[in-house]
Each structure stands twice: as structure tokens, then as C-alpha cells.
Amino acid sequence: MPTFQFEAMDATGQEIKDVIEAANEEEAQTTIRQMGYFVTKIQMKKGAAKLAPGQKRKRPFALGGAKTKHICAFTRQLSILQDAGLPILRSLKILEHNNKPGKLKNALGETCDEIEAGSTLSESMSKSPKVFSRLYVNMIKAGEAGGALETILQRLADFLESSEALKRKVKGALIYPIAVVVIASLILVLIMAYIVPTFKKMFEEFGLALPAPTVLLIAMSDYVVKYWFLLLLIPFCYWLLAKLVRKFRHGRMGFDMYMLKVPVFGALIEKNILARTMRTLGTLVSAGVPILEALNITRETAGNALFERIFSKVTEAIREGEVISKPLQAHAIPGFHPLAAFFWLLMGSFPGVMIISVALTSAKGTGAKGAMETLLMIGAITCGLGAVMCGLFYMMKMKSRVIDELVVNMVDVGEETGELDTMLYKVADTYDDEVSVMTEGLTRLIEPLLIVFLGVAVGFIVISLFMPLVSMITSLA
User: Fold this and answer.
1) For 160-171, what is each residue's pLDDT tens digit?
2) Which of 271, 411, 454, 462 is the most exposed, having the fewest neighbouring CB atoms within 10 Å of its CB?
3) Is this model's pTM higher than 0.85 or not?
4) What is the CA radius of gyration of the chain?
5) What is the structure's pLDDT at 226?
6) How many Å apart are CA 212 and CA 468, to the nearest integer?
7) How are beta strands 15-21 and 3-9 bridged, if at all?
8) Residue 385 has what pLDDT?
9) Helices 420-476 + 265-286 axis angle, to 10
10) Does the pLDDT of residue 469 top 50, yes or no?
11) For residue range 341-358, what is the model confidence (pLDDT) as tens digits?
């Protein structure tokens, strides 16, 4: 479609310079007059490509997807432009021009093309599902139906900004502990790979009888030097097994139920999901989206198979004429799942499996077969005991609720008073605060635990290396 450059005057006499796409000059002038402007000059833009009816403009290739922060900024800017009274097509073209090349810019261009072809904004945005989610499109659709698009855009911008702020806070709090763990692991690996072998060579030259801690340390050093790939391979096999099991519906359910019961981290995941789903549902209800459609969209944004099942049960109950709070309370207890128990047994057996792998790979190289057999027995006991303890822990926790009574009661009050969206917002705010507090507390707890771990590890290395030296010095004296 040709592009026309025009100059016009608005109702206040102010000069306007802009571009517009139209089939011909007559249609362009009609569109400009409908915008409330008086045309003073118009001409076709040089080099403008003419497209056949139904043909779309070619967009530059863009890798990856649109970042959430860019979508947040776009939504806020669009709400401001709509509040100022600009036509939606012109607002989108302004934002398309201001955006950097990428998925979002391409999606805005395609949305403009669809609107010019006669589609509504929600229909146009639905053609770009990788940029505009189903939640986003349904919110826009509700705003169009109610004639309050600018209000819906403001609520949508607030929702996206709150979700992005919480995500940034959690990620930022975890950067420091992860960095400390990585650096500490590298230091321990370097000690095992370069320092311990030097002492081992010295002990062999003197022919010293090595105590059990030193034998264990040398075995671990040999393991790191000769079989370092097992340090990566064994955890990778655990991860790959979990990944393959999650490909199936029951496997995903079992893994998600397992993750919700992991100490500390499980509670953090649960509260984060509750904050996100309650805010999503509240935003959709306040926008006027039908409750069944709102629950379906909320289920898709949960990101956890157990919560998806809960929202499915709530949807079925509402179809039968019940309220939200009753099925929400009835289906909030996970119960037993065999694959969840399987993942707990895997977690419990992991330390023992690592000890057994050290014993098996180092039995020949240390010259202390008896000590390695002892280590092998310790690994087998650790493996069995860890699996049993984790299995018992799961049996104790499997019937604990994943949705607190607080949520059920507030939803019940919201349904009775007709203020469901307000109550859902309050629940979301409450859990957002709890996630922030838990994240800060976890960060503060991890630091002293890492210091204790490093102290124990370094102390074990020092004691194990100096015990033979002290014995040698004593015998020489």
C-alpha cells in the first residue's frame, strides 16, 4: 500500500506533519479528515512500495522473542497515547517507529497491516502469539468490548510491571549466592587437581602409612584429575532423566509436585505461583473477561501442572453452578504421586551415588583397598539411608495444602461482596511481599551456610594433608 506524506492543520490551527498509508490519494485525504485534520499538502512518498491487496510488508528477520520489559514499556506508552486521544493505528505506528529492530517491532508492523485490512486490535495482536500472549489479547478484547481500552491498557501495564519487578527481584537476589558457589567450587577443584597430587607424590616417596582421611582425600583428588567428567556426567544424567520423565503428562505432574515440597525453595515457588495466578485472575475479572475464559487463561499462565489441575477443577465446578472458593479448597491437597516419590528417592540417593563413584574409580590407584572398600560401604549406606529419609519426608508432606486457607477465605468474601477482583489483588500483594521477604531471608541464610561449608572443606583438606606430615616429623624426632 502506498505511503503518503501530508501536512495538515488541527482544530487549534497547529501544523501537523505525518505519513499515512492508503490505496490512493483520495482515500488518504478522507482518512486524514476523519482524524480531525484539514489537509494543506499531500504527496506520495518517494520509493514507497506498492503492495497488492492482502499482501504484507516484508519484515527483517529477528532472533529470539520480545523481552517482557520491552512489552511493559510498549503497553505503558500505548496507554498514554490512547489516553491522549490519538487514533489506535497512528499510536501503533508511532511506537513501531520508536522501537528498535526485533520481534516486537515486527509484530507491531504486522498488527498495523491487519488493522488497515479491517481487523480489530485484539484480532490483529492474536496473529503474533509469540509477542502478545493470550492474556494480553483477551484483555485488549475486553477493553474494546467495554469501550475502555485506555483503562485496560493501564491495568495491563501495571500487571506486567508488577510481574517483571518481582521476577527481577528474585533473580537479583540469587546472583550473589550462585557466584559464590561457582567460585568456591572452582577453588576446591584447583586444590584437588594441583595441590593434593604434589603431597601424594611426596607421601609415596617417603613410603608413609596414610590415615583414612588422607586416603579419602587422595582418592577424591584422583577422581577429580582422572574422572572429572563424572562430576558433570552424573548430575547431567539425573537432570536428563527428570527431563525425559517430564515429557509425559504424569511425569510433569510428579516433578512439579516434587518441586513444591522441596524445603525452602518449594515454598518460594508455591508463593510465587499464587501471586502470579491471583494477580492474573484479578486483572482479567476487573477487565470484564468472562470468568470461565479468565480461569482458562490463568491456568495457562500457572506454569505448574498441579496448579493447572486445580484451576481445571475450579472451571468444571463453575460450569456446574458452584462458586470458586469451594473447589479451590477441595482440590488444594496434592496427595500421593508415584513419580513424585521417585524424584524424592533420586534426590536422597545422589550423595551416596557420588561417594560410590569415588570409591569405584579410585580403588586401584590409591594402594589402600581396605579403605576404599570401607568408603564403598559408606556410599551404599548413605545412598539407602538418604533415599529412605527423603521418602519418609515426602510421605509426611504430601498432604499439606498448596493453597492456604487465607486465599480460600478471601476469594469467598470477594464472591459474596462482588469485589472478587479487589480480593484477588490483595492476595497477590500479600504473596508478593512474602516472596520478597523469603528471597531476602534465603540470600542471608545462604551466605553463612557457604562460609561454614568452605570452612569444613578447607579444614578437612588441611587436616588430611598434615596428619601424615606430623606422623613423619614425630618418627624422625
Assistant:
1) 887 777 777 777
2) 462
3) no
4) 32
5) 81
6) 10
7) antiparallel
8) 92
9) 160
10) yes
11) 988 988 888 888 878 877
Residues in the chain: 477
- In single-letter form, the type of residue at position 242 comes to A
Residue tagged 506533519 (cell numbers): 17
Please state, in angstroms and as integers, the Cα–Cα distance from residue 209 to each residue in 205, 367, 370, following that order: 11, 10, 13
Phi, psi values for residue 91, rounded to 5°: -60, -45
- The pair phi, psi for residue 149, each rounded to 5°, is -65, -40
* Range 362-383 average pLDDT: 69
DSSP secondary structure of 393-405: HHHHHTTS-SS-H
Lowest average pLDDT, out of 9-18, 56-65, 118-127, 311-320, goes to: 56-65
Check the CA dihedral 221-222-223-226 and report its sign. Answer: positive
Phi and psi torsions of 180, nearest 5°: -65, -45
Go through 291-311 and write b for each residue having 16 or more CB atoms within 10 A of its CB, e for each that does not.
eeebbbbbbebbebbbbbbbb
- Rounded Cα distance, 142 and 287, in Å: 6
Angstrom distance (rounded) from CA 119 to CA 56: 14
3-state secondary structure of 167: helix
Element at 16 (helix H, strand E): strand 15-21
DSSP one-letter string for 340-358: HHHHHHHHHHHHHHHHHHH
